[in-house]
Write a structure and sequence with these properties.
The chain is of the alpha/beta class. It has 8 helices and 10 strands. It has a 6-stranded mixed β-sheet with strand order 5-4-6-7-8-10, sandwiched between helices. Helix 4 packs parallel to helix 5 and helix 6 packs across helix 7.
Length: 267
């Protein structure tokens, strides 16, 4: 995500990471505010973390802030987000069109609006295909090893899914590692669709089919919103922008193979 327009507009950037931890986020934001920064562009740790910070002690000192991805409905903040419901729909529709009927949807945890929207889009696609309720929602935890263990259990079942829709890049990596660890062919035995488009996804074979978020457009839109606030040109209410994602079909998805059924001979 590039904020090169900041330099063009005469601003210096301070970039900090919170490791998706709300307590770290609070400390880092308070430290930045103490430096009397002009504004903030934040990818929040969760949907509520910036609202809690704003309503808490010292929240009135927050400069103009724009939220990206999470917290899109947080009161009092301009926000930029992806259309995650449409993205989830496109990913699941792709798998359904390939003949997949047993799809595992892998997430690290529930509760985040962007994750729930991706799941909702998947459910809509399955419902349109007459497969309502056929999705398997699997929550695997925050770290790679926990996710890996959960996926291995799913893929080692007799009725294993023929496809996985991994809702984050770490979920996608766990899915690939689990399939390879069980000597399953991708996409012959299991198709995998990821979310986000990192370099490794098209550097290792099979190249990963994935939903790409418009990260550069996120940055551009967020910067425009922030500049409007800083220049006193913004509307009185908050502004919220929703941007489309792109499904990038590569090598990790293919037609579902018919399941082999054991038939007992009757004499």
């Amino acid at each position: 995500m590039s904020f090169s327009p900041a330099e063009r507009d005469g601003y210096d950037l301070l970039i900090v990471s919170t490791s998706e931890d709300a307590a770290n986020e609070r400390r880092r934001v308070e430290a930045l505010v103490a430096r009397r920064i002009d504004g903030l562009v934040v990818v929040p740790a969760n949907d509520d973390s910036m609202s809690a910070l704003k309503s808490g002690a010292g929240g009135s000192r927050l400069p103009p802030a724009v939220l990206i991805d999470r917290g899109a409905q947080a009161p009092g903040f301009d926000a930029v987000r992806a259309d995650c419901e449409a993205a989830g729909y496109a990913a699941a529709r792709h798998l359904v069109d390939l003949g997949h009927r047993d799809i595992a949807v892998l997430a690290h945890s529930g509760g985040l609006d962007n994750i729930e929207q991706r799941i909702a889009g998947c459910r809509r696609a399955l419902g349109e295909a007459g497969l309502e309720g056929r999705e398997r929602i699997v929550y695997g935890g925050q770290d790679l090893e926990s996710l890996l263990g959960v996926v291995e259990i799913e893929l080692d079942r007799a009725d294993r899914p023929t496809a996985i829709f991994a809702l984050t890049n770490v979920c996608a990596l766990a899915s690939i590692k689990a399939a390879r660890g069980l000597d399953l062919d991708i996409p012959g035995d299991v198709s995998i669709v990821g979310f986000d488009d990192f370099d490794w996804m098209w550097a290792l074979r099979p190249y990963l089919t994935t939903v790409a978020q418009p990260v550069d457009d996120f940055a551009s839109a967020a910067w425009r919103l922030l500049m409007r606030r800083l220049n006193g040109e913004a509307a009185s209410g908050v502004e919220r922008i929703e941007l489309p994602c792109t499904l990038k079909v590569r090598e990790s998805t293919g037609p579902a193979r018919p399941r082999l059924m054991a038939v007992a001979e009757v004499r």
